[in-house]
Specification:
This protein is mainly β. Helix content is 6%, strand content 36%. The chain contains two helices and eleven strands, in the order E-E-E-E-E-H-E-E-E-E-E-H-E.
Length: 203
């Protein structure tokens, strides 16, 4: 997608289901990665990195990005479908990581609190931007919200497939296409075809 985060600046939530390939993970890879026009990293999630840790990066002023990370066990990121959500509120400085509706990491950075850059952001799902670190596994029901969801709202996302929210900026079901349920941010399948799609959480 070329501009899935145009309505986002101070708050964001990105949620999705993932199934890491247990024969490959942990590996150096990104499950999503968004950059601004200057190619600065604005949103990125290593799930995991090669050391088995998870890194959520968000916001960049041109000199660096805000980051939160946690050590993870293989059972958390490979061999099973898990629901993940990452949030940031640049006003309060809160960054959080949720697994299956439960908060597993958080940080309050009262120094930087960097916004996500305004203007067009290019985003790749299932890879680092520039195709330099493809995610080894499967994904389903990827959503971007223009607010930092509460713990209760994240738990609801993990428990079911809620009705569309007014704060929903993009929603890719990944049911054999890159269509966005909001009708705004259709994606393009790169380096593959429909044979890459597998049975997910919702189809």
């Amino acid at each position: 997608p070329t501009d899935p985060m145009s309505t986002i600046s101070e708050e964001v939530t990105i949620s999705f289901w993932s199934y890491g390939n247990e024969e490959v993970q942990p590996a150096h890879n990104s499950i999503f990665h968004a950059v601004d026009e200057a190619n600065n990293r604005q949103a990125n999630l290593h799930l995991p990195w090669g050391n088995g840790s998870i890194y959520w990066d968000c916001g960049n002023d041109g000199t660096g990005y805000d980051r939160i990370n946690k050590a993870a066990t293989p059972e958390e990121y490979e061999g099973t479908w898990s629901h993940w959500a990452v949030t940031k509120n640049a006003v309060s400085g809160d960054m959080k990581i949720y697994l299956n509706g439960v908060e597993v990491a958080s940080m309050v950075d009262t120094v930087t609190k960097q916004d996500i850059a305004s203007g067009p952001l290019a985003m790749q799902i299932g890879n680092a931007y520039g195709m330099t670190g493809s995610f080894h596994g499967a994904m389903d029901e990827v959503k971007i919200f223009n607010t930092a969801l509460s713990a209760a709202e994240v738990a609801a996302e993990a428990a079911s497939l809620p009705a569309p929210s007014a704060d929903l900026a993009a929603h890719w079901r990944l049911d054999v296409s890159g269509a966005d349920e909001t009708g705004v941010n259709a994606g393009t399948l790169t380096n593959g075809d429909a044979s890459l799609f597998v049975e997910g959480i919702s189809g």
